Amino acid sequence: MISMIVWTFLVLVLVVVWLARGTRPVPVLVISLPRHHDRRRRFLRQTARLDFIDAVDGLDLAPCTGAGVTRGEKACFLSHIEAWRRVARADCDYALVFEDSANVRLPLAWSTLRRAVGLCGDDWDVAALGPRGCAAAVRPAGARTLLRLVDRFGMTCAGAPCTVDVWVRHQARMGRLRVCEAAVVGPFWDVVSETRRIL
Q1: Residues 43, 30: contact at Cβ < 8 Å?
Q2: Residues contacting residue 76 through CB under 8 Å, at least 6 positions apart
Q3: Considering the entire predicted model, what is its pTM?
Q4: What is the rounded distance in angstroms from the CA atom of residue 96 to the CA atom of residue 75?
Q5: Side-chain half-sphere of 7: how many Cα atoms within 13 Å?
Q6: What structural domains does the chain harbor?
Q7: Contact at 8 Å (CB) between 130 and 37?
Q8: How many helices (H) and strands (E) does the chain have?
Q9: Which residue from 53, 63, 165, 191 puts its CA 20 to 30 A from 75's CA?
């Protein structure tokens, strides 16, 4: 009887070790204005393993002239650039980047998001996880590509200012970036939603 218990325990330990091999922690970055205490608390209730990126405040930017983007959208783009800088330096397979407007459904959302990213296979830089760019998985190499593209093309799509989510998809259409949309369809489409933006 005791040998059976020991044998079962050893098998369980081996299975756990085998499943854990090659897995590294996934950094979670949340872009949030420092004054959005309620949104920050909501994310902290979901997981303590995250880092906040103080978002650029659109109210601090000069008004945008002409058609294109608002100050808030420009600030959002600048905030994503800071997130990409952090991911580019990270020692991870990928990082999860959220805007504080993202609502992540619990209780199994974190493991579900990992499975959703797994649908993308190996050939991607950015995996869309929520509507309008409010959540994405970004690989370090993908973040470095994003930063090079910003340096080369600025925050524009075909010469006109655009929002960060439109810009990322534009870069993919131009063949400059590999974006996986598999994670926002099928059984995962409602894991992340977005609250109304107020700025």
Answers
A1: yes
A2: 31, 55, 56, 58, 99, 163, 164
A3: 0.81
A4: 20
A5: 4
A6: 24-187 (3.90.550.10)
A7: no
A8: 6, 10
A9: 191
